[in-house]
Amino acid sequence: MSRKIRVFLALLILIVSAALLVWGYAPNPHEIRIQPIVPAEMRLP
Amino acid sequence: MIRNCRKSLIVLSALTLLVAALACSGNSSAPAPSDTGLLPVPTNSIVSTEPALALTSMPTWISPAPAIPETRRLTLEFPSRMRAGVEGDIVRLTLEVDDMGNITPTAQFEGTTVTGGTIQIPDLYETHDVTAEARLDLAGMSVQPSGVTYEPLKRGQSATFYWSIRPDQPGIYRGTAWLHLNFKDRSTGGESRIAVSAQTVEIEAVDFFGLSVNIARTSGVIGSVVGGVVGFPFLEDILKFILKRRRKK
Fold first, then answer.
1. What is the per-residue pLDDT across B204-227, written as a single tens digit (0 to 9) for each?
2. Environment class of residue B91 by beta-carbon count within 10 Å: exposed (0-12), middle (13-18) or buried (19+)?
3. Which of the two ends of chain A, N or C, has the fewest CB atoms closer than 10 A to its terminal CB?
4. How close B131 comes to chain A (CA, Å)?
5. Least CA distance to A34: which residue of chain B?
6. Among B81, B181, B216, whose Cβ lies nearest the Cβ of A42?
7. Selection from B92, B74, B154 nearest residue A36 by Cα
8. Is residue B99 part of a domain?
């Protein structure tokens, strides 16, 4: 019985720790916007 | 008889004068040419150029203002979601030359394709010093460098701006990434400035059920060690089990 509880506890701690590590070190999702600029938009006022 | 002839001549000449007067009165509404030989500008030309074009019935050639003779591409890269706390991230704004930017203006109308010709635009690089000016406004978030940053813009070269951002608290942060171009006339020293782009930026800062990044990472490392230690006594059993199976085979 105590063996089963120990295994369960070990697995639970490992899963939670892994989740925390994944969340803590995962790269942030980046958004990229591309806007073409024609010469008419870069002329003297 | 002579009297009748005189009367007819008088009537005829009167009619001729009348016809001539009527013929001349047809253009009476048009403005008379001035002494300089130039047509006066109609009063309604300020509102629209159409009547002026109709009156002169000549094509008007407008010399284009000097411009940067390159099609460029503005790329804005930012984290749409990031962790709140000590961790920072990078916002990048790049004004690069578009290699595929030699666009010929083309219009399609009912199956007919109309392709525009090349317009010679005076080159701004030859007469002006061009500087790109960028600024990132993000309310409530730490932005480095704060304020305006400048980078000279040369022909065929790109200008890139980087900002380091760090949200202290979770939440949604909104702001604007500005890009201006500054022109300085080499001969006169006159300066002018135009806004090229103002893009809205929205960044969501999150935490892990109230835990900050540092706490989450530290807990993850400690938890892994603890989980390993708790599960370690069974590691021996697992290894024995695997070795037994191999021996049997």
1. 999 888 888 888 899 999 999 888
2. buried
3. N
4. 12
5. B75
6. B181
7. B74
8. yes
Confidence of residue B60 (pLDDT cuts 50, 70, 90): low
Q: Letter for the amino acid at B52?
A: A
Q: Tell me the CATH number at B191.
A: 2.60.40.10
Query: Which residue in this structure is represented by tokens 């984290």?
Result: B79
Q: Which domain holds residue B126?
A: 72-103+119-206
Query: How far is residue B144's CA from residue A18's CA, in Å, rounded to a whole number?
Result: 32
Q: Is residue A8 part of a domain?
A: yes
What is the total count of domains within chain B?
A: 1
Report yes or no on B92 lying in a domain.
Answer: yes
- How many domains is chain A built from? 1
Q: CB distance from A8 to chain B under 8 Å?
A: no
Whether residue B244 lies inside any domain: the answer is: no
Question: Quick check: A30 and B199 CB within 8 A?
Answer: no
B57 Cα to chain A: minimum distance (Å): 27
Average per-residue pLDDT in chain B?
A: 74
What is the interface pTM, i.e. ipTM, of the complex? 0.81
Q: Specify the DSSP class assigned to residue B128.
A: E
- Within 10 A of B63 (CB to CB), how many other CB atoms are there? 8
